[in-house]
Design a protein that fits this description.
3% helix, five-stranded antiparallel β-sheet, 10 strands, mainly beta, Metal Binding Protein, Guanine Nucleotide Exchange Factor, Chain A, single chain
């Protein structure tokens, strides 16, 4: 969970029915190869949940739980895009996993990507 400043970034699904703001600026991304992340192609940035604000009604986002049911994968029930997920860090703090590919006006090449072997977990 890293941020390098207090800027506000906006993001959304493809159709805009799920939109959000997140405070901070990513300085890294995580690419996970677990069975869901690999299929979604997400690049994740983990932030404290308090830095994340949903701008659209919560019911616009569907939820998907699998495996240990600890990460709530959120997706748009209209266009199917997965802009974020919710869960807890190892210390039990609420976090949001932002899909960097869903941020507006963000240069993905500006952050290094760490590969994470979620498939082996």
């Amino acid at each position: 969970m890293t941020t390098s400043d207090e800027s506000v970034l906006r993001g959304s699904c493809h159709c805009g029915r799920v939109a959000f703001e997140v405070r901070g600026r990513p300085d890294s991304a995580l690419a996970c190869n677990c069975s869901i992340c690999q299929r979604k192609g997400s690049l994740l940035w983990f932030v404290p949940r308090s830095r994340f604000s949903l701008l659209t009604p919560d019911e616009n986002a569907g939820s998907y739980l699998f495996n240990k049911h600890v990460i709530k994968h959120r997706f748009c029930s209209t266009c199917g895009i997965h802009p974020y997920a919710e869960g807890q860090d190892p210390q039990g703090h609420a976090i949001a996993a932002i899909n960097l590919r869903c941020l507006e006006d963000f240069d993905l090449a500006s952050v290094p990507v760490t590969q994470y072997d979620g498939r082996a977990r």
